[in-house]
Write a structure and sequence with these properties.
The protein is 73% helix and 3% strand. The strands form 2 sheets. It has a two-stranded antiparallel ribbon.
């Protein structure tokens, strides 16, 4: 019965994607009005017409369906983000509706081979999302523009976005896919559209093969050392290698050293007093070994910003964003690990009431000071490497502090209530730090 209900939900989920065909004839504000009307329909009319039969068990418990309500909200976000390029909104709608829907269908029907990092998802589902999502996105974009797109270039872009969406969907997250896929994928698509195609030819020089050899060789060595030092598990090593190699190839050794600095500081902070943390029940699982989800949560922005710094005409913004993301991640990791070990008094950031160590959203004086020191060290490294000026160094420190405060607030609110998990909170933490740094740099130039 539950499986039959899931098929009905996904059939509707996929079928609604057909409405993306109308974007060919609509302006962005007309599409926005339709999204608002869809939200009102899903919230007030659909339940009265038997829509409750499509609700999941969790939806019945809370009294309202999350997925059905956030679907049109995510579409509204896409229409506003791509108000002048509705074919991009159509492409993301295709990935959300067709790709995500077919992932559930194939995952249910053929999902015996499970993903190593999430036993609830399967290889069949992830591959189906990648293939069907990319095909739907390309078809809808071509239809919306009446065929007036550079199909080859756009196909590469959409394959990257579909792959990223499939990776996001493959992880076990309390956030609904109708939020994470369209909003995360939409923002990624927006950033990648800033790439200047002329910069591609500038990269295709005689040094490209040499840079690739360095990227692969250096990361193979350091990833192996981290694995045997029990800082990474097997899939964490794969993720670390891909993140590091991409960062080095596009951003060079300077960007890579920022990533490496975070890894060293974070790993060292985790190892300090590990037995005492285990006894207190606040230690990192697996003996401190990071897995794929930890690597991507803290480090996925770095290769993205390295790419953007190389292929856009405003590299300074993405370089300072890269540094701030790593400074924020280092500050958060070090403050948590040191605070749990040496913090005499931990309190909740939203109420300032004393809470036990390890509580989501809890902060301490020792942890905060340690986090500030970690962010200062990372920012100093970026300044020494010439990534930014002295003003930029202090921007990175301030941005890291703001990002860490934001992470603590999310932990005390959304994470404690089960809307976010630790990895998603850590990712949003780096996003907040990077966004703060980019914004501060924009205000100072």
């Amino acid at each position: 019965m539950a499986e039959s209900s899931e098929y009905r939900r996904k059939t509707l989920h996929i079928g609604v994607g057909a409405f993306a065909l109308f974007l060919r004839y609509l302006t962005w504000w007309q599409a926005a009005i339709c999204a608002i009307a869809a939200f009102m329909f899903n919230a007030y009319i659909l339940p009265a017409w038997g829509g409750r039969n499509l609700w999941r068990e969790a939806d019945r418990g809370r009294g309202h369906p999350i997925g059905i309500l956030v679907y049109p909200i995510s579409l509204l976000f896409l229409f506003m983000l791509f108000h002048d390029r509705l074919h991009l909104a159509a492409a993301m709608w295709g990935i959300m509706a067709i790709g995500d829907g077919m992932a559930s269908v194939f995952g249910t029907a053929m999902g015996s081979a499970k993903l190593p990092w999430n036993r609830k998802k399967s290889w069949a589902g992830s591959i189906a999302m990648l293939l069907f999502g990319a095909a739907a996105a390309l078809g809808l974009a071509w239809w919306t523009t009446r065929g007036e797109i550079d199909f080859a270039h756009f196909a590469i872009l959409i394959c990257v976005i579909s792959f990223a969406a499939a990776v996001v969907e493959s992880f076990d997250s309390p956030m609904d896919d109708n939020i994470s896929v369209p909003i995360g994928g939409g923002l990624l698509l927006y950033l990648l559209c800033m790439i200047d195609s002329g910069r591609w030819s500038e990269l295709a020089t005689i040094s490209t093969a040499r840079d690739l050899a360095w990227a692969v060789g250096i990361n193979a060595v350091f990833t192996s050392l981290a694995y045997f030092a029990r800082s990474l598990d097997s899939w964490g090593s794969v993720g670390s290698f891909l993140v590091g190699a991409t960062t080095w190839f596009f951003g060079g050794y300077r960007s890579y050293l920022m990533l490496f600095a975070f890894f060293v500081l974070g790993s060292a902070a985790t190892r300090i007093g590990y037995r005492r943390k285990v006894a207190a029940g606040v230690a990192q699982e697996k003996g401190g070994r990071r897995s794929m989800k930890h690597v991507l949560a803290n480090g996925s922005l770095v290769p993205l910003f390295a790419i953007l710094s190389s292929l856009t005409r405003s590299p300074e913004y993405f370089l300072i964003g890269l540094a701030a993301a790593m400074a924020t991640a280092a500050s958060d990791t070090v403050s948590s690990e040191i605070g749990q070990l040496y913090g005499r008094r931990t309190f909740l950031i939203t109420t300032f009431r004393t809470v036990p160590r390890g509580t989501d959203g809890a902060v301490s004086l020792a942890g905060t000071l340690a986090g500030l020191l970690a962010s200062l060290l990372v920012s100093l490294l970026g300044f020494a490497l010439g990534l930014y000026t002295l003003t930029g160094m202090w921007i990175v420190v301030v941005a890291a502090f703001l990002g860490t405060l934001f992470e603590s607030y999310l932990g005390a609110t959304l994470e404690r209530r089960g809307y976010l998990n630790n990895e998603l909170t850590n990712f949003l933490n780096t996003v907040a730090g990077a966004a703060a740094a980019i914004g501060l740099l924009y205000l100072t130039v």
